[in-house]
Amino acid sequence: xxxxxxxxMVTGASAGMGADFCRQLAGRCDVIIAxxxxxxxxxxxxxxxxxxxxxxxxxxxxNTVEGVTRALxxxxxxxxxxxxxxxxxxxxFGQFADLDxxxxxxxxxxxxxxxxxxxxxxIPFMRERGGxxxxxxxxxxxxxxxxxxAVYGAxxxxxxxxxQSLQAELEGTGIAVQALCPGYTHTEFHEPLQGFxxxxxxxxxxxxxxxxxxxxxxxxxxxxxxxxPGEVNLELxxxxxxxxxxxx
Length: 248
Ligand SMILES: NC(=O)c1ccc[n+]([C@@H]2O[C@H](COP(=O)([O-])OP(=O)(O)OC[C@H]3O[C@@H](n4cnc5c(N)ncnc54)[C@H](OP(=O)(O)O)[C@@H]3O)[C@@H](O)[C@H]2O)c1
Known about the structure:
This protein is α/β, with parallel strands linked by helices. 45% of the residues lie in helices and 16% in strands. It has helices at residues 16-25, 39-49, 65-78, 101-129, 150-169, 209-219, 231-246, and strands spanning 7-11, 31-36, 54-59, 83-86, 132-137, 175-180, 185-186, 207-208, 226-227.
């Protein structure tokens, strides 16, 4: 592949924000490596975006060593990438001590291990080329420790810290790192969450996935690492941080 092409890798591209990242990156990229487990969804996205951008579907379960290896191989062979969007994710809901441990470990694998592995592979190429963008999809929940999301929230705190530290280490390289911290967003994310009733959350707290993605891309390179889309979410994040400060 010619190095003159602008290339993105988006994980979790088969639904929700990942699919919207692909749609909105189509205007900025020549090639998008779209990663997820549901290959037929990725094929449909490639068909939808045909003529706008070349989508290379990559079927991979990023919870597995094999899946991460396949993504790393694609990064090396079809890259180097200009945009890396670590978006794939899921959550469970419930008290930690009552939840199956495997689901919690899978979340750590997907949100943390897969993200750092892909960043580690992409950054040397970005450094060599003198620039690039990394978006790690975190959550406003990272600012709001509480009941029901102990491991999920902790993985997102990891992503915030990791992204901020990475940006400090990469100062002067032309690489911009963002931790995108959405609040309630209409996607498929909440469907598997047992005990979570979407209708209990006021409509004013929800954002559309495309809106969140636009806010992320608009903020890229503006010097902010933590990007919290929407006024309601920003207010929540500030209150959560204040509570943590007050507790010191
Ligand atoms: N929606 C919200 O309210 C909200 C709020 C804050 C943060 N977030 C974060 O936003 C990100 C995107 O979520 P979403 O809301 O767009 O949810 P979604 O509609 O459920 O999409 C999740 C995506 O992740 C992929 N994925 C899940 N497990 C995977 C695995 N093992 N390997 C590869 N891909 C995997 C799914 O694809 P396959 O099933 O095809 O593999 C899907 O494409 C997540 O990191 C989530 O934590 C969401």
